[in-house]
Amino acid sequence: MQLPPKVTDRAYARLDEIGAADQGQALRVAVEGGGCSGFQYDIRLDAPADDDTVLEKDGQRVVVDSVSLPFLSGATIDFTEELIGARFTIDNPNATSSCGCGTSFSI
Q1: b or e along 4-37 (b: 16 or more beta carbons within 10 Å of the residue's beta carbon)?
Q2: Is residue 104 part of a domain?
Q3: 11, 56 in Cβ contact below 8 A?
Q4: Is residue 43 in some structural domain?
């Protein structure tokens, strides 16, 4: 059985800061073929679709499409602020390797 990804309080707080829900938007986390390791994450603000899995807290939403969901089973979606910049990150237990860019991985 696949578990939906977890979303940290920091990620929801960042969505609140940027007013995502006020704009009718959610954070879309998708997995696409490509990148330097075989798969890559597509993380962007988007309107939820009918077949999305919706994770919600305090009115803020993170959505994952049905094709990407198995690749993100048990993953954690977070928001980090580092010297090189602030970004949403994914800690994915399904990834066997990743590359330096932080958005590409293999299974």
Answers
A1: ebebbeebbebbeeeebeeeebbbbbbbeeebeb
A2: no
A3: no
A4: yes
Which residues form the domain of 59? 6-94
Instruction: Say which residues have a Cβ less than 8 Å from residue 22's Cβ, sequence separation at least 6.
Output: none
Query: Residues 62-92: pLDDT tens digits?
Result: 999 999 999 999 999 999 998 888 899 899 8
End-to-end CA distance of the chain: 18
- Kindly state the tokens that stand for 3: 């578990």
The CATH number of the domain holding residue 59 is 2.60.300.12
Report the alpha-carbon distance of residue 66 to residue 88 in Å, rounded.
20
Q: Is residue 46 in a domain?
A: yes
How many structural domains is the chain composed of?
1
Cα-to-chain-centroid distance, residue 87 = 11
pLDDT of the residue at 98: 60
